[in-house]
Automatic annotation (TrEMBL):
Protein name (Swiss-Prot/TrEMBL): Histidinol dehydrogenase
SUPFAM superfamilies given in the database record: ALDH-like
GO terms (BP aspect): L-histidine biosynthetic process
Binding site for Zn(2+): Q256, H259, D355, H414
Length: 423
């Protein structure tokens, strides 16, 4: 259905663009599982793997033989495509590294301030799986950590019904550089990496997308481990004017819809003619889609706005995972878009390009979290530490300010720690 969006009121927007899923709705059950894994380790992990995945796992860790056998099942052409994607992902994420490991600059005579960069020691990558295979997610999680210099990367991914990991996912994890791989998914995997078990080591940060239970688990364990971002059902907002191609727009909206019945696809356009054309094209393309039943249930909305400034304003309110800009003057719109996981510019820049091969990362904040969270990037795996090199001249130049402010706050010992140096 096409709507005219003339009143850009926050209450109206809240109702129109309300997400279908809520982390709070599953947090109770997530806590029970996470607390059990925290207390009982491997035994709890195996119990919930049997309960939720229907798999009785004896050994949680993937062996070298299993990796070798998986790679033998992958044809050379597919290996070549994985290698091409790896090369692009490595190149893009290397550009995000700081230009130097440590820097110092004099900001005042006798005072040099700077920063040093240190990669995290061990991170955990969660790759969705089970019945499906998502080798692209394996690449998007492990490669940035390796580029950042993380010395140990472990990965968890759900097993199939026979207890194995899909050969493509396993091969991608190995090619990307994962050190250890575990046949565990869901809340039990997040909990195991957060708290550590007899087999699965505790990590410093957990990264990776998942369903609402995985997202809720990541939020719950933040007292013990850092996470990348909340990541839920896929989202896209397309901003288009009258010159955009309705076939391309419909194709991209449908592409996000095939992920999940809770996915959200939105078109914001200044043209009623384009809106009508896209609506018709969505119906035509959906009828031919392999995942037709999922696409039909996913949320889709077409909104006609008065101008592109309004479109950008609505987009910033939604704060979607993906934004596509298909207008005559894309730079003017790009500069107005502030809340988005990633932005694609031009009619030949579909979300699928970033999902697989352009090199940018596809692990992105959803559910409106793009207002405050960044997408996956190299710096997610690097700590910054400030450095302060101060000599007598430098301290003398700021001592009166330090002593005065310390006394104002009632910290006499702070003030004396400076004054003593000049008595």
């Amino acid at each position: 259905m096409i709507r005219q969006l003339s009143n850009i009121d926050e209450d109206v927007l809240k109702e129109l663009f309300k997400r279908r899923t809520s982390i709070e709705s599953v947090m109770g059950s997530v806590k029970l599982v996470a607390d059990d894994v925290r207390s009982n380790g491997d035994a709890a992990v195996k119990k919930y793997t049997k309960q939720f995945d229907g798999v009785d796992i004896e050994s949680l860790e993937v062996t070298e033989d299993e990796i070798y056998n998986a790679e033998e099942l992958i044809d050379y052409e597919t290996i070549g495509h994985l290698e091409a994607a790896i090369e692009n992902i490595q190149a893009f994420h290397a550009l995000q590294l700081p230009s130097t490991e440590t820097w110092l600059t004099e900001i005042y005579p006798g005072i040099r301030l700077g920063q040093k960069y240190t990669p995290l020691s061990r991170i955990g990558a969660y790759v969705p799986g089970g019945m499906g295979s998502y080798p692209s997610s394996a690449l998007m999680l492990v490669i940035p950590a390796r580029v950042a210099g993380v010395p140990e990367v472990i990965a968890c991914t759900p097993p199939r019904k026979d207890g194995s990991i899909h050969p493509l996912t396993l091969t991608a994890l190995d090619m990307a550089g994962a050190d250890r791989i575990f046949k565990v998914g869901g809340v039990q995997a997040i909990s195991a990496m957060a708290y550590g078990t007899g087999t699965i080591p505790k990590v410093e940060k957990i990264v990776g997308p998942g369903n609402i239970y995985v997202t809720a688990a990541k939020m719950y364990v933040r007292d013990s481990v850092e996470i990348d971002m909340p990541a839920g059902p896929s989202e896209i907002v397309v901003i288009a004017d009258e010159g955009a191609n309705p076939v391309f727009i419909a194709a991209d909206m449908i592409a996000q819809g095939e992920h999940d019945v809770n996915a959200m696809s939105i078109l914001l356009t200044t043209s009623r003619l384009l809106a009508d054309a896209v609506e018709n094209e969505i119906a035509v393309q959906t009828a031919k889609a392999a995942r037709k039943e999922i696409i039909e249930k996913a949320s889709k909305g077409i909104y006609v706005v008065k101008d592109l400034e309004s479109a950008a304003e609505v987009c910033n309110f939604i704060a979607p995972e993906h934004v596509e800009i298909m207008v005559r003057d894309p730079l003017s719109v790009l500069n107005r878009v502030k809340n988005a996981g990633t932005v694609y510019v031009g009619e030949y820049a579909p979300v699928a390009a970033g999902d697989y091969a352009s090199g940018a990362n596809h692990v992105l904040p959803t559910g409106g979290y793009a207002k405050t969270f960044s997408g996956m990037n190299t710096m997610q795996f690097i700590k910054t530490t400030s450095i302060q090199v101060i000599d007598r001249e430098g301290l003398e130049g700021i001592k009166d300010t330090i002593i005065a402010l310390a006394n104002i706050e009632g910290f006499d010992a702070h003030a004396r720690s400076v004054a003593k140096r000049f008595e």
